[in-house]
Amino acid sequence: MTGAVPDARAPARDLGGSMVWTQCVEARPFAAERVVCFPHAGGSPYFFRSWAKALDRFEVHAVCYPGRAERIAEPPATELVAMARLIADELRPFVAERPTALFGHSMGAAVAYEVARALEADGAAVGHLFASGARAPQLMRADPAAGTTWSDESVAATLVELGQTDAELLQNPAFMQLVMPYIAADFRMLAAYGGDVDRPLSCPVTALVGASDPRVSVEQTAAWQRSTRGPFRLRTLPGDHFYLAADPPFALIDEAVRGR
């Protein structure tokens, strides 16, 4: 779920405040555009470490949620919208400086959506929102019992179902002690989130889903159309919930941002 620390990566950029939310995968000061990537529940910025080479005309950044990677000593976040607003505060100079697209997968799609809402509410223009492997916000219903609904056991079972974690790894005490706390916290935070589309975005939105995703249907993905007044595209791709691990949608991102 977390991956290894890449050998070459620009340091996280401190835009003020005590927490740094983004890591620059490969600094490209002359790139015309940026893509900021938001990991899934339990994910880290390392999930996107290979994206900079393929998206070579972009400067790629990845969000690091608290409780993992370089932020392992911090307690995990518990409230998705509040976290998104802090990330938006850090990204505001990015958006003002260069066109910036947001790409979120699974839980990251909800976080990216709320970041886009916060930025647009403050008058900032988001270049594009990519919502991958996630139900539309209005289909997410807050579960007041999320803390008990998502036990470590139910989280572990879901990880195996989604195909990104080996069942044997969940028997490893070190893994369970180090990694499960922030993975479970992410699941609970997402379960407690209730999205809406009362203020549709202005930016273009592209929604992506794996054709064999066991948790998100094409219909639930298509409902992202209500999240924006701008152009909308739906793309169904081969694979399951983590279709992008084996075949990242690089060409699609490039084409969508170019407006093709």
Could you provide a short overview of the structure?
With 260 residues, this protein is of the alpha/beta class. 34% of the residues lie in helices and 15% in strands. Strand 2, helix 1 and strand 3 form a beta-alpha-beta unit.
Explained architecture:
- This protein has 260 residues and is of the alpha/beta class.
- Helices cover 34% and strands 15% of the residues.
- It is built from ten helices and seven strands.
- The chain has helices at 51-54, 80-97, 107-121, 146-149, 152-162, 173-178, 180-191, 218-222, 243-246, 250-258; strands spanning 22-24, 33-38, 58-63, 100-105, 128-132, 205-210, 232-237.
- Strands 1-3-2-4-5-6-7 form a seven-stranded mixed beta sheet, sandwiched between helices.
- Helix 3 (107-121) links the parallel strand 4 and strand 5 (128-132).
- Helix 2 (80-97) crosses helix 3 (107-121).
- The two termini are 33 Å apart.
The strand order across the widest sheet is 1-3-2-4-5-6-7
**Extended strand count:** 7
Mean pLDDT: 87
What kind of oligomer do you see?
single chain
Low-confidence runs (pLDDT<50, min 5 residues)? 1-18
Alpha-carbon distance between the termini?
33 Å
Alpha plus pi helix count? 10
Shape: globular
Sequence of secondary-structure elements: EEHEHEHEHHHHEHEHH
| Alpha-beta content class | alpha/beta
Radius of gyration: 17 Å
Percent helix, as a range, is: 25-40%
Biggest sheet details: 7 strands, mixed
Percentage of residues in strands = 5-15%
Primary descriptors:
260 residues; single chain; globular; 7-stranded mixed sheet
